[in-house]
Amino acid sequence: MDYLEITGQAKLSGSITISGAKNAALPVIAATILSDKPLTLTNLPNVVDIRTLLKLLDMLGGEVDHQGIVARIDNGAMNSTKAVYEIVSQMRASILVLGPLLTRFGECEVSLPGGCAIGQRPIDLHLKALEAMGAKIEIKGGYVRAEAPNGLHGAKIIFDKITVGGTENVLMAAAMAHGTTEIINAAREPEIVQLCDMLVAAGVAVEGIGTGTITVQGTGGKTLEWREPVEIIPDRIEAGTYLCAGAITYSQITLEKVNIEHIQAMIDKLESMGCQFTIGEESITIHPPKKLRPVNIITTEYPGFPTDMQAQFMAVATIVEGESLIEERLFENRFMHVSELNRLGADIWLKGNTAAVKGVEALYAADVMATDLRASSALVLGALAAKGVTKVRRIYHLDRGYDDLEGKLAKLGAQIQRKSE
Ligand code: EPZ
What we know:
alpha/beta, four-stranded mixed β-sheet, 14 helices, elongated, binds ligand EPZ
């Protein structure tokens, strides 16, 4: 199994380019099911989750030509509507095929994703919304079986809780439904905006994009006509992770191809810790201070501070003199990195959904184990700052969502190597 060997305390410098966003690319790939015409996607990140979803399309009878950061997808001959356990169990986001398969084919079966390392992660809100649009849904044998033989109809969907995946599934279902769907308490993440823009480019009338109320005029069962390639937006979480790499190593580094607006919440927190920034149109350089200050963070939906950056900021806080408080409001169990960071010598106490991080003078290398995607990147950050040689194991989590993490960090001067044992 592969692991990363990192010799800490190297100063970083130089610049790297941020890849396309995994969490934007996944719904865009699922949305290709809404058409029987080919579509080209560009700026895809080279990560396992993308390959997994493309494999699922292939298993459903789609034709996928994937070369590096470009994929041409043709779902004209799609002839299966069953997303099997073997794929869905590898990646929860496979649930995103539920809305598009159901609205295009009038039936589908998608394996229930189950829980994961960061929490229970139910899909009840996705199912309730599709039922409101006329779907008949039963759960049998570990599968969601959904039917709408005459197609879905528009409905007013009020989400009790803001859900990114739920909003995406409803947007895709609504695009081919009969009539108008109104989504109240919709997610406002940039990844949602990209999906809406893709639907608009295909002629679907979508209003309220980027707000909490989105309306979609369905095509009444007509498949969509793509008119132009879709370029995936930059990955704001990857960008935030590298800004944390600059901060934790007290290094000046530059990121190219970022969307500054999408990373504002991270910039604000790093500024409150004493970092300064030089900001270009699509680039950002971090200038850490001589001494970072502690930070208080509450995770929330966009445009607030993202849960996907909680672990990385916690890693930075471990070496900052004073106490930082980090409250996780989205997922009940997203603290698996705490005990691993403590193995590196951090001083973190958990009480309910809040972590109190008391800064220590230095972290010390140890063997640590990745537990989920973002927890893994927090361990890599800790290792970059630690004295000695850290081994980060179970890095298949990292490979799911970070494009060439060790290559990019090595380009910045980190002493990092992938090894096998
Ligand atoms: C997306 O997950 C992201 N994944 C996650 O990123 C991210 O952490 C999360 O949004 C929040 O920003 C992708 O985009 C592929 P949610 P998603 O539905 O859509 C509860 C990463 O590291 N909920 O917005 O699954 C849920 O349990 C990943 O890249 C229900 O109760 O998240 C959570 O508490 C991890 N019922 C909250 O809502 C539902 O039916 C928000 O979840 C759906 C969600």
